[in-house]
């Protein structure tokens, strides 16, 4: 039986059917016009996903900076074993016995061999040479880890305008750090006829080299953490503002204490007055201002340098303890409380390591651990600052 479409019921339904089909076509057209742009919007860069990638990369770079084996180089006194600096040529160490003899002969022409290591054998030279060679190769690895991903992420559009400036600054600092390292080593290779002291690099240049490395590390860690950790939504109360200022001042004090350690290492100041809390039997030793002019003592007198480092370390411990106690009175996010608690625990550990290093006459493993502890303490201070930062507007 063939349906009769002239029946009034179908005649009544057909206008509604036509309206439904028109609405359906309109909605289909609108969906088709919107859907192609939706993937483009989701793939817009930079976004949360690209920020995580860049943040992890910067954390990895900061790990490479802190992993630079400078502590081992200082402890083994191998920094002056390579007397030349070539960006590419020195990447290949001596291969044959003749090449090793030639390298050893060059080393014999400089003060460290003449005054300190005149009985050194070729196998002993190979050890300190490889220590310094590894340090320099690691530095080149750090440079590549910054520069190559920067080029890739830049082309991909992963950087915001402000982040581009920060990343360029970090890459420029890597180059500066390398040049400063050679400038430091050069100071230890110079002949000093008027000096009868053990050949060593200038403590000023050592401090500058360490300081620039700490700045590079801190900036990379801070930028990486701010990209990975979303800022907390906290009421901007007066107590919170005071806590932020307190945390910034404490972080600056921790940085300054770590930097003063470069003068201690550069002058072997840990080998004088190996007692605590007094220096010998006095709180303030007699020779603290033995040099003239007085300002010279703060940078060249081992007694004064050790005294300054003690004062800064105790000041850092006091400030961190105060920060911890002040934070306990406030309602803070869980992550921020953990960061402050770990900072306090690390501060007491670092002071215990420093005192032990001093009392035991600076054994190499303990001294290296103490130097690494200063970086760990600085890292925790930066984490605290990242957790307490303001929400971006």
From TrEMBL:
Localization in the cell: Membrane
Organism domain of life: Eukaryota
Pathway: Porphyrin-containing compound metabolism; heme A biosynthesis; heme A from heme O: step 1/1
Pfam family, one: COX15-CtaA
Transmembrane feature ranges: 137-155, 167-185, 210-231, 252-273, 309-326, 338-362, 368-386
Principal place of residence: membrane
Keywords, in A-Z order: Heme biosynthesis, Iron, Membrane, Metal-binding, Oxidoreductase, Transmembrane, Transmembrane helix
Cofactors demanded by this protein: heme b
A GO BP entry: heme A biosynthetic process
UniProt protein name: Cytochrome c oxidase assembly homolog 15 (yeast)
Species of provenance: Cyprinodon variegatus
């Amino acid at each position: 039986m063939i349906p009769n479409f002239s029946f009034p019921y179908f005649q009544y339904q057909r206008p509604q059917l036509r309206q439904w089909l028109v609405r359906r076509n309109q909605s289909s057209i609108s969906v088709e016009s919107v859907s192609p742009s939706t993937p483009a919007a989701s793939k817009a860069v930079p976004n949360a996903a690209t920020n995580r990638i860049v943040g992890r990369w910067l954390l990895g770079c900061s790990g490479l900076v802190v992993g630079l084996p400078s502590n081992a180089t200082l402890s083994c006194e191998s920094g002056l074993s390579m007397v030349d600096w070539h960006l590419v040529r020195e990447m290949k160490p001596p291969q044959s016995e003749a090449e090793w003899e030639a390298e050893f002969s060059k080393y014999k022409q400089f003060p460290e061999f003449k005054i300190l290591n005149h009985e050194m054998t070729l196998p002993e030279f190979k050890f300190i040479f490889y220590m310094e060679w590894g340090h320099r190769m690691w530095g080149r690895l750090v440079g590549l880890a910054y520069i190559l991903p920067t080029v890739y992420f830049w082309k991909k559009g992963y950087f915001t305008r402000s982040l581009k400036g920060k990343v360029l600054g970090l890459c420029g600092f890597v180059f500066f750090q390398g040049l400063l390292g050679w400038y430091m080593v050069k100071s230890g290779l110079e002949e000093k006829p008027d000096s009868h002291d053990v050949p060593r690099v200038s403590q000023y240049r050592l401090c500058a080299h360490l300081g620039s490395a700490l700045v590079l590390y801190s900036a990379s860690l801070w930028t990486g953490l701010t990209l990975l950790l979303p800022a907390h939504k906290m009421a901007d109360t007066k107590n919170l503002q005071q806590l932020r200022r307190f945390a910034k001042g404490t972080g600056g004090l921790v940085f300054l204490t770590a930097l003063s350690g470069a003068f201690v290492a550069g002058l072997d100041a840990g080998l004088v007055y190996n007692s605590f809390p007094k220096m010998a039997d006095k709180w303030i030793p007699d020779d603290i201002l033995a040099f003239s002019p007085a300002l010279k003592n703060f940078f060249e007198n081992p007694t004064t340098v050790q005294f300054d480092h003690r004062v800064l370390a105790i000041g850092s411990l006091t400030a961190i303890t105060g920060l911890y106690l002040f934070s306990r009175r406030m309602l803070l996010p869980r992550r921020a409380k953990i960061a402050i608690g770990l900072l306090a625990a690390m501060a007491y550990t670092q002071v215990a390591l420093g005192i032990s290093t001093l009392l035991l006459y600076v054994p190499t493993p303990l001294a290296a651990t103490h130097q690494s502890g200063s970086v760990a303490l600085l890292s925790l201070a930066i984490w605290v600052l990242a957790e307490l930062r303001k929400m971006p507007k």
